Structure formats: C-alpha cells, structure tokens
Amino acid sequence: MLRIAIQKSGRLSDDSIKLFKECGIRFESGSTGKLKSLSTNFPAEFLFLRDDDIPGYVEDGVADLGIVGENVLVESSKNVRVVHQLGFSKCRLSLAIPRSTQWNGVQDLQGRGIATSYPRILGNYLQEHGVEAEIHEISGSVEIAPSIGLADAVCDIVSSGSTLLSNGLKEVEVIFKSEAVLIGSNQLSNEKQVILESLLFRINAVQAAQSNKYIVLNSPVEAIDQIAALLPGMKAPTVVPLKTEGWVSLHSVINENDFWTNIVKIREAGAEGILVIPIEKMVY
Ligand code: ATP
Ligand code: ZN
C-alpha cells in the first residue's frame, strides 16, 4: 500500500483531491477533521498534513508520496525526488519594494533588509547575483514588513499581485516559478514502485484528457484532406458518411492549445456544425 501525504487545508488541497478522484481513487477527504483516510478501491492511504511538513515526512519514509509546491520543496531541501509535475497551484516567488521606491535591479538591495518565508531560495538567488543583504525570516504576513519598518523589501509568493498592491508594494523581480509536484521517497520497495506506476498511468491519462478535446464536424467530401491535415488526431481522423450526398462527418482529437488557431482554418476550408467535446480519460 502507498501512503500519500496531501495538504490538509489550503491552496493545494482541492486540486490534489480532485486529481485522485479523476484517477478513480475514492477516499474521504480531510475536511471532516480526519488525519488519514484509506482508499476504498486503490491500495493507498492518504495523510492530511501541513504542506511544509510533507517533504520531511516523505524523506523519513512516513509517507511514500506527497503533493507540495516546488517552492516548499526547494526551500525544505529534503532528500526526495520529483516524480511528476502536476500543473496546478501555479505561483511565483518575487521581490517587491514600496511603490514609491525606484528600482534599477537587484543590486539595489545590497546592504538592505528583506523579509521572507523563503530564506534558502532567496539566499541562493542573492548569492548568484553577488548581492549581500540581511534576510529577515518571518513565517506569515510578510507583505506588511516594509510598512512597519522591519525591512526595505519583501520576497513573497505572488499570484495576481493584489496583496502586494493593497500593501503599497510593487513586484520588481520574479526569482522562482512554482507549481504543484508529486514527490516521492528515494527508497520505495518494488511492490510500492508497481503501485506508483499504476498511479502515474492514471495521472497521465487524466492530464492528456485535460489538454485535448474531441472534435466532430461536417465536411464537404472535397475538403476532407485539407481538414484532416489540420486535425491529425491520435492516429488519423475518423470519416463517416452523412446521409446528405457529398458530405461526411469527421471526428478527431485536438490539443486545446492548437484549437483556436486551427479552428479558423478548418471553417475556411468549408467545415460546418463544429462540436467540441471534453474528453474524460485519454490513453495513447
Ligand atoms: P499550510 O497551512 O498547509 O502550511 P500554507 O498557508 O503554508 O498552508 P497555502 O497558502 O495553502 O500554504 O499555499 C500552499 C501552496 O500553494 C504554496 O506553497 C504555493 O506553492 C501555492 N500557492 C500559494 N499561493 C498561491 C496562489 N495565490 N495561487 C496559487 N497557488 C498558490
Ligand atoms: Zn505551509
């Protein structure tokens, strides 16, 4: 059985639970105050923890796998491996200074005080840029540090920038980009490795489905080749005759990123009645 640590409540929790549900793995979530929960249909037990504790538990082998932000993983500096990128909880770690202060570059911070919850990532960044500054480690509400005179700048997580703005700060430099990752212990038994492989198979099927759409359209017979070239699909599009002479229905799969660019050309080629349908799982 695999023990999988996920955040009890916070910005990683909902998407972590959703991922396992979409993989068809059933368990009771931690919102009921439970600390752990056994899946009823997959050989896994879920542990609900604070995200900061997860890399340590995985390193110690208390948990086999865990989900954390790359920011927390790198800051923790624990001996664990990234098993899979998960693509959610995207955010960045940035330097910010009071809005009225001029910014010419990171050298401006030479000899200054910077408040952060990420002393290790910030320290490495400053060292790489040859800047010596005083790092004040604080665990929360970093953004108020300049206004209370604790620091000249902050280094904090940003997603929209609205928290910085409401504290009179401006973002001046992104120093680290983060998303959620599945981390794993370096010493999994063969049995656990086999369960991990089957979990990764499911995660890949869910992620492929999310980035692709099923597309159905009507095409004049003479436009089939031109439209098919724009919709290569997994092998080749399916072409089914319509009852109306001279027309076919063409079915294929398209990557979401290519959709808006290709759809214009597909219509120009003569396609009509274009349907775009979500895919639930996709196995190559
Ligand atoms: P805990 O109580 O578990 O210690 P926390 O308060 O430290 O939680 P959260 O604010 O829930 O952490 O953030 C968890 C992770 O989500 C962060 O480490 C980061 O990777 C990511 N994250 C943080 N802020 C955002 C945001 N605004 N948008 C998206 N992802 C974010
Ligand atoms: Zn935390």
From TrEMBL:
GO BP: any one term: L-histidine biosynthetic process
Its EC number(s): 2.4.2.17
The entry's keywords: Amino-acid biosynthesis, ATP-binding, Cytoplasm, Glycosyltransferase, Histidine biosynthesis, Magnesium, Metal-binding, Nucleotide-binding, Transferase
Keyword Nucleotidyltransferase: no
Domain of life (superkingdom): Bacteria
Residue ranges occupied by any ATP phosphoribosyltransferase catalytic domain in the UniProt entry: 50-204
SUPFAM superfamilies (alphabetical): GlnB-like (SSF54913), Periplasmic binding protein-like II (SSF53850)
Activity regulation info: Feedback inhibited by histidine.
Reactions catalysed according to its record: 1-(5-phospho-beta-D-ribosyl)-ATP + diphosphate = 5-phospho-alpha-D-ribose 1-diphosphate + ATP
Cofactor or coenzyme needed: Mg(2+)
Involved pathway(s): Amino-acid biosynthesis; L-histidine biosynthesis; L-histidine from 5-phospho-alpha-D-ribose 1-diphosphate: step 1/9
Cellular component, GO annotation: cytoplasm
Domain Histidine biosynthesis HisG C-terminal: 209-281
Compartments where located: Cytoplasm
A GO term for molecular function: ATP phosphoribosyltransferase activity
NCBIfam families reported in the protein's UniProt record: hisG (TIGR00070), HisG_C-term (TIGR03455)
Record's function text: Catalyzes the condensation of ATP and 5-phosphoribose 1-diphosphate to form N'-(5'-phosphoribosyl)-ATP (PR-ATP). Has a crucial role in the pathway because the rate of histidine biosynthesis seems to be controlled primarily by regulation of HisG enzymatic activity.
Family: Belongs to the ATP phosphoribosyltransferase family. Long subfamily.
Name of protein: ATP phosphoribosyltransferase
